[in-house]
Specification:
- It is a single chain.
- The chain has a six-stranded antiparallel sheet.
- The chain has two domains: about 1-45; about 60-194, no CATH class.
- Helices cover about 35% and strands about 25% of the residues.
- With about 190 residues, it is α+β, with helices and mostly antiparallel strands.
Length: about 190
């Protein structure tokens, strides 16, 4: 069957521009891969919580310091973006561990986070204070939060550690550490496939 002029023009165009189309496809593919690589390695994705500190007499909004860490291990490719803040909650306004936890629970709930049952492994790996604190309630301990409606294995986790301090022999207040742990995109993909 004879081909029409339109079909011949299309065939001619495809043959003539095949190399150009292949080069264009390769350029778009390389650009996409470069974007993923740069997004993974050069653009960290820290989850920063806009929380009010229990004290306000310090510069920096009542926080002693803020740390940003990219955590990875040599035996696997997992990468986590860790944001950490430290402060104190002073007595008599904060007279118990629970009063400090409630102060942060309200703020975390307003930001779309909910407290989880004890023992989150990401908190165990990233929150150094677990070496002397237990999970759960008491006069010292840590709790974990996950974004409402999200799966803790593939979404950020927040850890809050609270323990008493005293400089004068009697209890002066509580030391507070809050941190967020955000898995990188490739870490999330690996955790989903496990």
């Amino acid at each position: 069957m004879a081909k029409t002029i339109s079909e011949l023009d299309t065939i001619y165009f495809l043959k003539r521009h095949r190399v150009l189309m292949i080069i264009s496809f390769l350029c778009f593919t390389l650009a996409g891969l470069a974007y993923l690589y740069l997004n993974e390695t050069l653009l960290p994705h820290f989850v920063i919580l806009n929380l009010k500190s229990p004290i306000s007499d310090l510069p920096r909004g009542g926080w002693y310091n803020t740390e940003y860490t990219i955590q990875s291990w040599s035996d696997n490719l997992n990468r986590y973006y860790v944001w950490r803040r430290e402060t104190t909650a002073k007595a008599p306004e904060f007279d118990s561990w629970n009063s400090v936890i409630v102060f942060f629970d309200k703020q975390m709930n307003n930001l779309g986070w909910e407290r989880q049952s004890a023992g989150y492994s990401l908190c165990l790996h990233q929150l150094h204070e677990v070496s002397f604190l237990k999970s759960g309630e008491g006069e010292s301990g840590y709790v974990a939060y996950v974004m409402k409606g999200k799966d803790s294995t593939t979404s950020p986790v927040a850890c809050l550690a609270v323990w008493p301090y005293s400089y004068t022999g009697s209890m002066n207040g509580y030391d507070v550490v809050i941190l967020t742990i955000n898995p990188s995109l490739s870490t999330m993909r690996r955790r989903i496939s496990e």
